Amino acid sequence: MASGSSTGVMPTGGRIFSTVPDIFFIPEFVFGGLVWILVASTRIEAPNPLGWVMFVSVFCFVGTTLWFFIFLCGANQSSIWPGLDTGFHFVAIVFYLSASVILAFSTLVAAANLEAAGVAGLPTDLLLKNYRLDISAVVMSYLATLLYFLHAIFSALRWKSS
């Protein structure tokens, strides 16, 4: 008969800085926070859909922070946590991918507005600054999507092996 003791597959404490899926927490903080900051620093026009992008970046940043502290404190040792970890990161992928597409579309609209203002001879300094911030936010948003995707894949593999 098998022994009653089992080792948890979910890391705790400082081990989260050395395991493959959990090492993505720090870059997710960085790129998710950068998306939040870059989108928040741009001037938003009235019909702009960046509210969803802000919601996603704040939701994922807060969710990742809570998830990180749960893992750090070791409260993730029951058998349900590998599935929850995979589920959270899958939701983050769907949210960030939708937000990234919306942000990229808004940046294309901003490029058209910048070009139209330049042709009309209007001052473009503020438009150019916002356009550059939007480009940076798009790049960071897709990088955050990639990081959440990698985290979800490795979390699913860990879930499958548990």
From TrEMBL:
- Tell where it localizes: Membrane
Protein name from the UniProt record? Myelin and lymphocyte protein
Q: Which family does it belong to?
A: Belongs to the MAL family.
List, alphabetically, the InterPro entries matched.
MAL, Marvel, MARVEL-CKLF_proteins
Recall the taxonomic lineage recorded for the source organism.
Answer: Eukaryota, Metazoa, Chordata, Craniata, Vertebrata
Indicate the principal place this protein occupies in or around the cell. Answer: membrane
Question: Is Cytoplasm included in the keywords of this UniProt record?
Answer: no
Q: What topology does the record note for this protein and the membrane?
A: Multi-pass membrane protein
- Ranges for domain MARVEL come to 16-160
